[in-house]
Design brief:
The protein has 122 residues and is α+β, with helices and mostly antiparallel strands. The protein contains 2 helices and 6 strands. The relative contact order is 0.19. β5 and β6 form a beta hairpin. The mean pLDDT is 88. The chain has one domain: Protein Transport Mog1p, Chain A (3-Layer(aba) Sandwich), CATH 3.40.1000. The chain has a 6-stranded antiparallel sheet, with helices on both faces.
Length: 122
């Protein structure tokens, strides 16, 4: 785990392979905007991972709602599938992300689905 700061959310990640990434962020002084966050994250993945958005669908988990974004991109030169969930309620957002090597897409999609279906907010 990488502890957060006043500028970055807590992160659960594998800093060597960057395979699964989960974070939480709290907006101070207002409410979270899923649509603005989705737009921001799409731009970030396009610029950092040369990602192409493949799909954007609604998702609801544990009373939180948002979007699941699926990208095809590059991570350190390797072709990857990026699955990225943005969910929120009130002023709290959660982000669940999985980077998959293109050779393991089917298994990783099933694994990610198992992970996010068992997720519970803290």
């Amino acid at each position: 785990m990488t502890p957060g700061s006043n500028k970055l959310a807590d992160q659960f990640d594998d800093s060597f392979d960057h395979f699964i990434y989960v974070s939480r962020d709290v907006v101070t002084g207002g409410s979270l905007s899923i649509s603005l966050t989705v737009s921001h994250d799409i731009g970030t993945y396009k610029s950092h991972y040369h990602a192409k958005l493949l799909s954007k669908t609604s998702i609801s988990l544990q009373g939180y709602s948002g979007k699941i974004l699926v990208f095809s991109g590059k991570d350190n030169g390797a072709s990857v599938l990026i699955q990225h969930i943005i969910i929120g309620k009130g002023n709290t957002a959660y982000f669940l992300t999985m980077f998959s090597d293109r050779t393991h897409i089917s298994a990783d999609k099933a694994l990610f689905k198992t992970i996010y279906r068992t997720w519970k907010p803290t």
